[in-house]
Amino acid sequence: GFLDHVALGNEEWNPWEGDERNELVASQQRYEANLKMIKNARAHLGETSLRVQIWGKAAIGLYLWQHIFEGHLQPADVTAQWREGSQKAGKIYFSFITGPSVVPGYFSVEAENVVLVLNGREKAKITYATQWLHYAQTLIQTHKIQHIAVVLLGNEQCNNEWIQPYLKRHGGFVNLLFVTYDYALVNEEDIFQWPLGVATYRNFPVVEPSWSMLHDPRSYLCNFLGTVYKNSSRETLMEILKQDGLDKLCWIAAREQWQPQETNESFKNYQDALLQSDLTLCPVGINTECYRIYEACSYGSLPVIEDVMTPGDCRNSSMYHSAPLQLLKTMGAPFIFIKNWKELPAVLEKEKKMSLQEKIQRRKKLIEWYQNFKAWMRQKFINTLENSFLPSDKG
């Protein structure tokens, strides 16, 4: 509008109609001042706005977009070959694309700044992830894009060495890395811990808290639906529950084989268990952090977490007193942390004595904490991109 106004003003101004030369000079100065103002405004606009395209090539991208950013995707159909969404947040205009049809070289690169969401859990996934990184590197070399951040579903033992040569600090081109689990190289400068989130690969939904979810009495003290691995603490947990007849007070459905895909029935059972239990038991698996923690929070069922380090290269607890689950603990997660499942009977005893009113307050606190946690992660993500990708005001 401002540009049109200046152009129009210029057309209306006719120097030959004015008798006095002063008027001519004053008008010329006004016109030049306006032009300068527009030029400054444009330069300022360049400084304060950033276009970022997110390429979602791992299910964790849906947690980022739909749960943390509360973004929408079109089409809504989760099986669609191509899904996209956009939103403005902070100084950044984000666009998000995901789906099997998003293949290197077969979509338009619409921003100079890219966030690449990758899966690095195992060898085959890493091979696929490196193809994307090489594609991104080519785009940087040909000046099609300027900056790259990676959100990585890391390996559960924190074996993420393969990504290191791609980081700027090691001579690569990746400006920022957001990585899951307690990766020892997290430094809050260019490597940040990222939450695992809910199992979006099983289409776990964004849950809106309802009145009944907060206020209704729940039928079970606790729940555990999951795989019981041989010689694991999960076997100990099952024994303790059976010993004291506590399994009668809790919704327990154990299986011996892990199933990556839920059936509609087993998934509905799982959601019902979260909704109908005051506590969700979270024994360690391959890593202490699991989807179950975040899924329980979504339904206001308090996670009871086995707070022990799992084998591998994740943060050594002697050096990092708040590992495992450094990120959640730093953010003041109101969970119950136990070192051994032998502590569970005392926890459940206390639970039996709690009034509904106390449980309602606890649910409200948990759901509010989880909403704040997601909002905080979103803001941190935006701030980090702005600080890294926007030209600085120095000089």
UniProtKB/TrEMBL annotation:
<dbReference type="InterPro" id="IPR057538">
    <property type="entry name" value="RXYLT1_C"/>
</dbReference>
<feature type="domain" description="RXYLT1 N-terminal">
    <location>
        <begin position="52"/>
        <end position="195"/>
    </location>
</feature>
<dbReference type="GO" id="GO:0120053">
    <property type="term" value="F:ribitol beta-1,4-xylosyltransferase activity"/>
</dbReference>
<protein>
    <submittedName>
        <fullName>RXLT1 xylosyltransferase</fullName>
    </submittedName>
</protein>
<dbReference type="Pfam" id="PF24786">
    <property type="entry name" value="RXYLT1_N"/>
</dbReference>
<dbReference type="GO" id="GO:0005794">
    <property type="term" value="C:Golgi apparatus"/>
</dbReference>
<dbReference type="InterPro" id="IPR055286">
    <property type="entry name" value="RXYLT1-like"/>
</dbReference>
<feature type="domain" description="RXYLT1 C-terminal">
    <location>
        <begin position="201"/>
        <end position="390"/>
    </location>
</feature>
<dbReference type="InterPro" id="IPR057539">
    <property type="entry name" value="RXYLT1_N"/>
</dbReference>
<dbReference type="Pfam" id="PF24785">
    <property type="entry name" value="RXYLT1_C"/>
</dbReference>
<keyword id="KW-0808">Transferase</keyword>
<dbReference type="GO" id="GO:0035269">
    <property type="term" value="P:protein O-linked glycosylation via mannose"/>
</dbReference>
